[in-house]
Amino acid sequence: MKKIIGSVIFIGFFLYVFAETNYLNNKNIFFENLTLTELILGSLGVAAFVFFFPVSHGKKPARLLSQVLKVLVITSTVFIILVEALIVDFSGIGFGPEVITHLNWDAFVLGVKQYKLPLLVFIMLTTAINVFILGMNKNSKAITRALLLLISIILIGLFFNQTIYGRLYEGYIEYNKLMNIRGVHESEIKKLKFIGIDHIKTSKSNIVANTNKDKNLIVIYLESFSALFVGNPNYPDLTPKFDKMAKQHHLISPYISTAHYTMDGLISSHCGFIPNMLMGNNTLASGERYYYDIPCFTDVLSVAGYHQEFLGGAKKSFAGKGDFLSDHGYDKVWGSEDFYADFGEQMTWWGLEDSDLFDQAKSRVHELQQLDQPYHLSLLTLGTHLKGYPSPSCPKYKDSEDLFINAIHCTDYLVGDFLDYLVNQGLLTNTTVIITGDHTLFSTSYTQDLFGNKIDDKNLFGLIIDEKNDIKTSNMGLYDLPPTILSLLEVDHNVSFIMGDEFGREVGSPMLTRNELYINGKAQPLSFECQFDLNKKVKPGKDIDLCDQRAVIHQLYGYTERFNIPSKFRYKANSVIEILYEKDYTKIVDITIGGNSLKPNFRNNGFVLTPEMYGRKGLFLININHQTQIIEHMLNFSELSSLLTFLQRVPSDSQSTLLLFGIDVEENRQVLDQLKVEYKEFTCQTYMVCIKPNENHDNTVTDKNNQRVIVSGF
Questions:
Q1: Fold assignment, 186-563
Q2: Alpha helices per DSSP H over 328-389
Q3: Greater confidence, 654 or 646?
Q4: Which of 621, 710, 631, 709 is nearest to 672 (CA)?
Q5: CATH 3.40.720.10 residue ranges in the chain?
C-alpha cells in the first residue's frame, strides 16, 4: 500500500514540476521553446532528485543531519517552483536578473499579502510530502535509492537549463555579470551614436542654466499606465476624463516605455537613458550613489532657480528613491513615511491612497504658488499597482467589478478632478503639465484575461498640457522627457542627454529599449541566431540582432557606471587622514584614513581617477560628516567653477568638515588664492592643504617633512 501511495505522490510531484515548466514554456518566458522530451526528462530529474535524496540510517547525529538536509531539499525545491510561478503571475517574467534584484524583504511581504492561499496550500502540501517521503525512505533499499539518485543527477546534468535549478542559476549568473560591468570610456560610447546613444558633454557639477519665462511644471506619473487603457473599446467610458483630455491637449503617440518598473521609469524619465537596474532594485538603497554625476532635467531646473518637490504615496526609502531624487535637485521628497501619523490606518500595503495623495497635491500647489520662484511638483500614483488598489472614495466602473479595472477608472477620475481643481483655482496659469505612465502594465495571465494580446504593447499613456499650440512629438520614449520638458519650459542650458531627444526622434530612426529595438513605434524582430557576447562591438550598416542589442545595452551600462559615487566611507572616532606626497608636493602617493586607502573612491565628473591624475593640476575634496562619522564625498575638481558649484550646494548648517588639497603647481595655487576670496570659510593651514572646519570639532592639520600631511580631530 505504501508503494502505491509513494508512486502516486511521486507522479503528482513530477506533474507539479512538469506543469509549471510547461506553462512557462507555453507563455514564451524562455528564450527558446523547449521540446516535450526536454520538458519531461528535466522535470523527471528534479522529481527523482527530491524523492531519492539520501537519508542516513546510521547513528543518530548523522541520521538527524541527513533528515534535515532532505527536508531542506524538498521544501526549497517546492518553494522555488512556487515562487517562480507567482513571479510570472505577478510580473510576466521568470528568474532573470530583474527578478533577482527584487529578492528582498519588502517583496516577500508583498508576496505573502498577494498570495495567501497558494502559500497556505504550499505549507500544507510540503509538510505532508516531507513526512511521507522521510517515512518512505526507511523501507527502501540503499542500493535502489543510490541508483535512482544517480539517474536523477544524470538527468539534471543533461537537462540542467530546463530545470528550476538551472533557471535560477542562469538568472543569478547573468545578474552577477551585470553587477560587475567593465567601465566604458566615452570614446567607445561615441561610436554608438547611430543607434541613439551619445556621451555626456556636461556633468551635473558643470551645469549652466537660466530661464526668463519662469514657467511652473507639474508631472503626474501614473503607475503601470499603458496607452491601451484609454479609449479601449472593450471598456467603454473607462477613462472619460483622459478621453476628453486627449482631444483637447497633445497626446504623445507613439510613446514607448523604456522601463520595466517604477524606479527604472523615474531614472529614465529624469536623466534620459536606460539605467542598469539589473544591478539591484535596492542598488540605489545600498549607500552607493548610482548615477550621481549624470545630469538630469531636475538638476538643470535646480540651477535655473526652481523649487522642486516630489510627492508619492509609497515609501520614499524603497529602492533608494528618496536619496536618488534628493541627489538630483529636489528640495523635498514626500513619501508614506511623512503621512503615516495622519493616514496610517487608511493606507494600503503600498502606502497612501491616491485620493489622499491628490488632496495633498492640491495643498502643496497652493503653498508653492506663494514662492517667489518657479516650481516643479511631481506626483506618483499607486492605485494601478497589480492587482488594483482603487481608492474607496472613487466612483465604481459600471461594467466590471474587477479591482484593476476599477483602479484605472479611479485614476482617471482623480487626475481629472485634480486638473479641474487647478483650472478652477486659476493655478494652471503659466504652468506645463505632463501626464505619463511610469512603465507599461506587466503581461501576465491575469492582465491577458483583461486586455488580450494587446497587453504586450509597450505604448505608454502620455499627455502634454501646455499653452503652446504647435507641439509635435515623434517616436518618443520615457528617456525623451528630460530634453522635451526643458524645451517646453524654455530653459537655456548646456546639458546633453545620453539617449533623450527633444520631442522624440525622426521618422525611421532607431529607438532602443532594454529588450527591443523600435522604429516608428514598432518593435523590430531581432534574430536569436547569434553568438551572445556582452563585449561585442556593434557597427552601423547592418541589421541589429538580439546579441547586438544586448551588447549595446551592456556598453551603455558600462559607460553610465563611471558616473557613480562609491558607498559612503564610515570611519571610527579619533581617526586621522594622511596625505602622502612625493617630495616637494609634486605628486600624491596615497590618501588614507585609519590605514585604509581612499584613492579608489575619488571621482572627477563621475569618472574614476587614473594614476596620472594624482600628479596633475586639480584639487581634491573630502567631505567629512562628523555627525554620522561618514565620508560623504571624495571628489576631484579640474576647474574652480565646478568646485564653487559644489560648495554652494553644501548647506550652511552642515555638520561637516571640508578638506581641500592638491599638488604644488601654479594652477592649483591660483585656484586656492581665488577660493580664499570667493569662499572665505576655508583656512589654508599648510602650504597646499586647506580646511573648512566644523565648529564642534577641533580639526588640526600638521605637515611633516614636506611629504606627509596629517588631519586629525575627528
A1: Alkaline Phosphatase, subunit A (3.40.720)
A2: 336-343, 354-369
A3: 646
A4: 621
A5: 186-563
